[in-house]
Design goal:
Rossmann fold; 6-stranded parallel beta sheet; binds ligand SAJ
């Protein structure tokens, strides 16, 4: 079997590699020339456990990378789906443009599988009209499938192979055909359903997690007010057989959980309450952290802001992805004075993305005496003795020290 994977980012690349290492002939297409060149030079484009090994293995099998769309029977589209900040609705422009380009080159009867996360109804509202406009009939000239991914950054390769998946298709036989394709590497259960159910399922999975993190974050605020240890409260409550509270933190980032629930808020403004409130709690968490930091500085009579360092810029621990990261959200909320003076460091970030950014940990800690931990990267866990004497705001509950304040 031969497929063309469109979009070689965080999801498209590992998926393409997984197919290639399981007997499927793959051409990976991305409009970003630089990215394609990097892959063709034999290098991966982001850090992920097991990705380099999988990439090397795939290069020995049947895979090619190009900027050109191919004439194929099966396309897997994995391009970003941002949301419009003003009205919170999905912006499907990249998916639409990928489908339009596929239609220019594909074989008659081709199957277009959309992996990108889309809000319920996106295929009906935006994709079917594009196909109709080009004079094609779905179910005859073109078959549509939605196969949302479920893999978690940090453990993507394992989850690609072991998670269950959802395939939404108009026709049962097409759904079964695509199920068979994914079963080449996926050991999990593969459920075939209709397209709209698959769209809804994906979005509510991430929304479920967002709401549960918001609950933990709200608890952190209640416990702060009462001067209680939220982690201890959660640990004890979780001993209950039907309670499983997540961990509070500096906020919710990434391109999934902090984005997808907004699709529901935008599409169902008259119905949505809990989902919106949860999003707002999580979006407000970086500000809560900042207020906590200011209170701690005041309590300790610290006025020299140039001695304050922020550790961690990525959206979560041990990844190199900064999209919607709580630290970036917090940097936007700093006063001018704080922004001018606070120092920043993240071992995963090698390019300059903000002011006063360091690229060497020892130099960073030499210049500060207050540190705020925004990411619990393994790196900081391995270097805790170097910061133990500093004043610490630990938003990740990793440091037991008399100088460490918790959320
Ligand atoms: N976070 C907390 N407390 C927690 C757990 C997470 O504050 O207890 C924060 C993280 O630090 C991060 C954010 O939430 O900022 C999201 O991280 P995550 O690890 O929960 O999830 P993502 O965004 O990396 O990946 C999610 C996953 N979805 C679910 O678990 C329901 C993944 O399976 C999806 O494939 C992915 O979104 C996606 O691409 O949609």
């Amino acid at each position: 079997m031969k497929i063309n994977v469109i979009g070689l980012g965080y999801i498209g690349l590992p998926t393409a590699l997984m197919f290639a290492t399981h007997g499927v002939e793959v051409v990976g297409t991305d409009y970003n020339k630089e990215l394609v060149e990097t892959l063709n030079e034999g290098k991966t484009t982001f850090e992920e456990k097991g990705l380099d090994e999988l990439f090397k293995k795939a290069l020995k099998s049947n895979i090619k990378f190009t900027t050109e769309y191919q004439q194929e029977d099966i396309y897997i589209i994995s391009v970003p789906t941002p949301y419009e900040k003003e009205n919170k609705k999905i912006d499907p422009k990249y998916v639409i443009s990928a489908v339009e380009t596929v239609l220019q080159v594909c074989k008659k009867g081709a199957i277009i599988v959309i992996e990108s996360t889309i809000s319920p109804g996106t295929i009906d509202k935006f994709i079917r009209p594009v196909i109709k406009e080009k004079g094609y009939e779905t179910g005859k000239d073109i078959h549509l499938v939605h196969a949302p991914e479920r893999i978690i950054p940090g453990n993507m390769i394992y989850e690609l192979e072991n998670n269950s998946r959802t395939i939404g298709a108009d026709e049962k036989e097409i759904g079964e055909k695509i199920k068979k394709l994914y079963a080449s590497f996926c050991k999990g259960d593969i459920v075939v359903t209709d397209i709209k159910t698959a769209e809804m399922t994906k979005v509510i999975e991430n929304t479920f997690r967002d709401i549960n993190i918001a609950f933990a974050n709200e608890l952190s605020r209640i416990c702060r007010k009462e001067n209680m240890d939220v982690y201890e409260v959660i640990k004890i409550a979780n001993k209950h057989p039907r309670v499983n509270i997540l961990q509070p933190g500096p906020g919710v980032g990434g391109h999934c959980i902090s984005v997808d629930p907004w699709f529901l808020v935008g599409d169902y403004p008259d119905i949505v309450n809990v989902i919106k409130a949860a999003r707002e709690v999580n979006d407000g968490q970086p500000e809560f952290v900042l207020e906590r930091l200011r209170a701690i500085l005041k309590e300790n009579n610290i006025s020299d802001l140039s001695k304050v360092g922020i550790y961690g810029l990525t959206y979560k621990d041990n990844v190199d992805d900064i999209r919607e990261s709580p630290t970036l959200q917090m940097l936007e909320k700093l006063s001018k004075d704080e922004k001018e003076k606070f120092k920043v460091y993240d071992p995963y970030i090698k390019k300059e993305i903000t002011k006063n950014q360091y690229f060497n940990f020892d130099e960073f800690i030499k210049d500060i005496n207050v540190i705020i931990i925004m990411n619990a990267h393994d790196h900081i866990k391995e270097n805790i003795e170097k910061i133990n004497n500093m004043l610490i705001l630990d938003t990740k509950n990793i440091i037991e020290s008399k100088n460490a304040y918790k959320l």
